[in-house]
Specification:
Layout (H helix, E strand, L loop, with lengths): L2 H12 L5 H7 L5 E3 L4 E3 L2 H5 L5 E2 L5 H13 L5 E4 L3 H4 L7 E4 L4 E4 L8 E8 L5 H13 L2 E6 L8 H4 L2 H5 L3 E6 L5 H6 L6 E5 L11 H8 L6 E3 L5 H12 L11
Parallel strand pairs: 3-4, 7-8, 7-9, 9-10, 10-11
Antiparallel strand pairs: 1-2, 4-6, 5-6
């Protein structure tokens, strides 16, 4: 349940269109709902503007469906389920779902974003980095942002990246996704005037240590304005890019 939905309930009470008893029934499971395996945070959308995101890895298919159905009962929209395999996705049959196979993200109760905001660019070094890049891009799109994808543009053929300099320079945040030695983030950081969120991936040969080499290279970047998320954490990067892109979009009242 997000802020707009709660405001609509309160306005219905104010206008005499809804009794206090019915309003209490609508809100009776706030702020969270207990299951034997989870406590579903129904106030997340009110506090943060985004409903709770379901991390699919490690959960059973039945647990994923149970949490999704609980959120649907509270009329949440664009519910993100990350790291959900095609096999687990089958348990959502019968629910309104948009499944993105490359990103392994399911969007439950999907609603179109009428006016995507700002500009986020997601750039990946190689095609093998696409699953993590798509996780970042889909996350950012569902959160209401305009996203441009620039894929397979790593430093092994840097002219491919430089061909997109205009799109990069127009971004309010860039997500740079790379495995191997992770050099892409430093190159992008030297081109743009906005924050760069570096995502190391576990792509690479033995000495990449499943992404540790890229992680350390990105943490040691000499380019200013580069921050780093965990290995393969496309979701975290997309979420952070959204927060950066939307800074100032909604004003907050500050008491003096």
């Amino acid at each position: 349940m997000n802020r707009d939905h709660i405001l609509s309930i309160l306005k219905d009470i104010e206008n005499g269109n809804l009794s206090a008893e019915l309003a209490a029934e609508k809100l009776r499971l706030e702020p969270y709902e207990e299951f034997s395996y989870a406590n579903v945070d129904h106030h997340r959308g009110l506090r943060q503007g985004v409903p709770e995101v379901i991390y699919g890895a490690g959960k059973t298919a039945e647990q994923i469906r149970g949490i999704a159905e609980a959120m649907l009962r509270h009329e949440d929209e664009n519910i993100l389920i990350t790291r959900i395999s095609p096999e687990k996705r089958a348990v959502l049959e019968g629910l309104p779902v948009d499944y993105r196979e490359i990103a392994q993200i399911a969007i439950v109760n999907p609603k179109p974003i009428e006016k995507p905001y700002g500009s986020i660019v997601v750039v990946s070094a190689g095609t093998s980095d696409m699953p993590v890049a798509e996780e970042a891009a889909v996350t950012a799109e569902v959160l209401g942002n305009r996203v441009t994808r620039i894929y397979d543009s790593g430093v092994a053929g840097i002219h491919r990246l430089l061909a997109h300099t205009e799109e990069l320079m127009q971004a309010r945040a860039v997500v740079a996704v790379a495995g191997m030695e992770g050099a892409l983030a430093s190159v992008v950081g030297g081109l743009v005037d906005c924050p760069v969120i570096a995502v190391p991936t576990s792509v690479g040969y033995g000495a990449s240590f499943h992404g540790l080499a890229a992680l350390l290279a990105m943490l040691n970047s000499c380019a200013s304005g580069v921050s780093v998320v965990n290995i393969d954490n496309g979701f975290g990067a997309g979420y952070q890019a959204s927060m950066i892109n939307q800074v100032g979009r909604y004003s907050k009242s500050v008491s003096e």
